[in-house]
């Protein structure tokens, strides 16, 4: 028994060392690529997770991760989903397809915001370090500008819910949530060569019909010169993603905590008022009959009644209604009970469930982290422990992979993946 435990400790120690090594290997000099080859630039929410992982062993480098990400911030506050620090042509669509006017070059859409959450996490690890205090103070107005951008450009009507204008902006690129709005989006007529399917089995990646629409949206926005108001008015794809809205809520709460130290009374008042509106906005996505939160198509006005992981993210976001949190935990428990390893990104008994295809079923470490943390915040410790143990078991079995098959535990997509390593260090093996 004791020998078993000692062996397990040794395994964990070795895995932790491997996770640190991965984050160092994927360091391109002040920023971390998600993985070599498949994703050769800096991605927005990947870097926020990486910064938290890196903070467990190098606080100084963790701040640099956020600072290099903010080097891509636009004057209007947008924090792009990709910063192309060094242009390499192994990725499509590269900077010329986006056609955004910024140096360093960037994409033109954003991703789920986690930089206030990450800054708070690093600060907590830093103790009383005055350099950290100064770096957090310098980042604070930039993060505030990002949140003001979300409010101004992606919720012009002040509803409390923001809209995403591209499936990539949700971070869950090919989730079945986007099938309906994407079918109403035209396909590009440009011929293009995907690079992803040259590196990863096509059965684990989005379909071609989806890619043709992803590219159409990029070309449409480029044609509108990335003018926020025109894009908002003219886009065929505009969705209030419950996942992104929940993550935004959490980031804004963390931003409010940063504002207590670094902000003005005016900032705090604005953020408090917004936090209330966000709670009200989120509640409009609740479907009492289904016992779930659903995203909404802001073009057709219809609820997108898809049983995806995003419906549970309000647990991470700071859901105030205990009864709803309990219902969410019970339903998530039912999904996990049908899998060898949870949490799947789609209900396993749904006909759309696809155990290998990206955001249509597989387990993602960062999702386990957010759901596990959210469950624990609401007192559902057993299920939180299960998600943590499952992620550890997946990594032990299959390595630090991009995502995993919930039924077999097989590793899928990219290998040597930065946010899997970060999830291990900051959450699962902590
Ligand atoms: C994929 C994922 C997205 C992630 C990116 C880099 O596009 O869907 O969430 O940020 O890869 O890892």
Helix/strand-derived class?
Answer: mainly alpha
List the uncertain runs.
none
Order of helices and strands: HEHHEHEHHHHHHEHHEEEEHHHHEEH
Report strand order across the widest sheet: 1-2-3
Mean pLDDT: 96
How large, in whole angstroms, is the Cα Rg? 20 Å
Number of helices: 17
Helical content class: 40-55%
Please give a structural write-up.
It is a single chain. This protein is mainly alpha-helical and 430 residues long. The protein contains 17 helices and ten strands. The chain has helices at 2-25, 44-55, 59-70, 95-98, 115-126, 130-154, 179-183, 196-199, 208-223, 228-234, 242-262, 265-283, 314-317, 322-337, 365-377, 381-398, 418-428; strands at 42-43, 82-84, 105-106, 239-240, 286-287, 292-293, 295-297, 303-304, 403-404, 411-412. The strands form four sheets. A three-stranded antiparallel beta sheet has the order 1-2-3. A three-stranded antiparallel beta sheet has the order 4-7-8, with helices on one face. The protein is globular and about 65 Å long. It starts with a helix and ends with a helix. It binds alpha-D-glucopyranose. Alpha-D-glucopyranose binds next to helix 2.
């Amino acid at each position: 028994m004791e020998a078993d435990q000692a062996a397990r400790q040794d395994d964990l120690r070795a895995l932790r060392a491997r996770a640190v090594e991965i984050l160092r290997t994927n360091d391109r000099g002040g920023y971390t690529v998600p993985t070599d080859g498949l994703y050769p630039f800096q991605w927005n929410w990947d870097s926020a997770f990486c910064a938290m992982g890196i903070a467990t062993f190098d606080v100084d480098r963790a701040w640099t991760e956020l600072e290099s990400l903010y080097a891509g911030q636009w004057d209007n506050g947008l924090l792009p989903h990709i910063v192309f620090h060094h242009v390499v042509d192994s990725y499509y669509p590269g900077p010329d397809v986006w056609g955004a006017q910024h140096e360093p070059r960037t994409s033109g859409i954003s991703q789920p915001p986690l930089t206030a959450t990450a800054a708070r996490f690093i600060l907590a690890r830093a103790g009383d370090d005055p350099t950290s205090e100064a770096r957090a103070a310098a980042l604070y107005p930039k993060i505030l500008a990002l949140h003001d951008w979300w409010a101004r450009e992606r919720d012009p009507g002040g509803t409390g819910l923001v809209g995403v204008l591209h499936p990539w902006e949700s971070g869950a690129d090919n989730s079945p949530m986007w099938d309906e709005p994407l079918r109403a989006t035209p396909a590009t007529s440009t011929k293009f060569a995907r690079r992803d399917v040259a590196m990863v089995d096509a059965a684990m990646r989005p379909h071609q019909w989806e890619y043709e629409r992803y590219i159409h949206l990029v070309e449409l926005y480029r044609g509108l010169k990335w003018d926020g108001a025109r894009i908002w008015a003219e886009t065929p794809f505009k969705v209030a993603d419950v996942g992104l809205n929940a993550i935004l809520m959490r980031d804004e709460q963390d931003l409010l905590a940063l504002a207590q130290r670094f902000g003005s009374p005016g900032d705090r008042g604005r953020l408090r008022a917004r936090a209330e509106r966000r709670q009200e906005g989120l509640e409009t996505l609740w479907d009492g009959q289904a016992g779930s939160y659903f995203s909404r198509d802001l073009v057709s006005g219809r609820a997108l009644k898809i049983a995806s992981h995003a419906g549970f993210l309000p647990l991470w976001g700071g859901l105030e209604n205990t009864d709803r949190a309990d219902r969410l935990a019970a339903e998530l428990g039912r999904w996990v009970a049908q899998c060898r390893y949870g949490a799947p990104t789609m209900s396993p008994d749904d006909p759309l469930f696809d155990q290998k295809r990206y955001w249509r079923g597989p387990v993602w470490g960062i999702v386990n982290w957010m759901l596990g943390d959210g469950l624990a915040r609401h007192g559902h410790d057993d299920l939180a422990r299960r998600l943590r143990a499952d992620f550890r078991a997946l990594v032990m079995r299959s390595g630090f992979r991009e995502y995993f098959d919930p039924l077999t535990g097989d590793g899928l997509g990219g290998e040597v993946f930065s946010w899997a390593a970060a999830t291990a260090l900051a959450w699962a093996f902590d």
